[in-house]
Amino acid sequence: MTSIPADPSLVLGNIIDPEKIDQLMAIAELQQPVDLATDRLNNLTMSSYKMGMIYQQMVNMGVDFVSLTAIQAEQIALKAELADAALDLGEKVIESEKALRELKDKFAQTKISKQVESPMNYELSEVKPFPLSFDSLKF
């Protein structure tokens, strides 16, 4: 799952220019292939660790090595798939970073801008201390 990239203009109570949201969505769209490739690599890594643990448990229980050939074959296949996923991730990062640099240069701030002030009046908001834990909702 891809998240919206962080930006200093995304602040609670701040009015956000819709163009800025579009820019951030474009950045998130470029990052999505890298996120998916990272998730795939992480899933394969976890599978590889699980297969290794299962193999070690079987050896510790005294299972004969002839019975473990299927697990060994799966471990070899997982290592090959893991290497392919790592290479795929590297390629996706290279492609994505090049496109992200170009996009961020295009969206770079070229002038100081101004915008409408937030409709929230922070001076009228009061800070109330609440106990860290309490037995009821009445303080």
Draw up the topology in text:
Blueprint: H1 18-60, H2 69-106
Helix pairs in contact: 1-2
Could you give a short description of this structure?
By secondary structure, the protein is an all-alpha fold. The chain is built from two helices and no strands.
- Average predicted local confidence, pLDDT: 83
The termini sit apart by: 40 Å
Q: Which parts are unreliable, with pLDDT below 50 for 5 consecutive residues or more? A: none
Radius of gyration: 26 Å
User: Would you report the number of β strands?
Assistant: 0
Question: How would you describe this structure to a colleague?
Answer:
- The protein is an all-alpha fold and 139 residues long.
- It contains two helices and no strands.
- The mean pLDDT is 83.
Observed structural traits:
mainly alpha; flat; 2 helices; 139 residues
